[in-house]
Write a structure and sequence with these properties.
By secondary structure, the protein is an all-alpha fold. The protein has helices at residues 26-36, 40-45, 48-85.
Length: 86
């Protein structure tokens, strides 16, 4: 029931509350278990501050790979143009 009201256009007043005994970090751990297919004990061994850095590092790695791919693509295009000149 809680997940139904997690939609951005859902009425926040109609959203049921979370259970009182729900651990405060369970939503974060659920995300990482789902995102990275980690078993529960892996997320339990990491602190919240460590878990916070993982998406940032993923994004940085993706950006770096994209930049490298662009450089390699430009280099290949230049080499192809040089071969066609001669």
């Amino acid at each position: 029931m809680v997940w139904t009201y997690n939609h951005p256009n859902a009425d926040p007043e109609a959203r049921p509350g979370l259970p009182d005994d729900l651990p405060p970090d369970i939503m974060v751990k659920r995300f990482f278990a789902k995102q990275y297919q980690w078993p529960p004990w892996v997320t339990g061994e990491l602190s919240l501050s460590e878990l916070e850095w993982l998406p940032i590092l993923e994004s940085a790695a993706d950006d770096a790979q994209e930049a490298i791919s662009e450089i390699e693509r430009d280099r290949a295009e230049r080499e192809a143009r040089q071969k066609n000149r001669y």
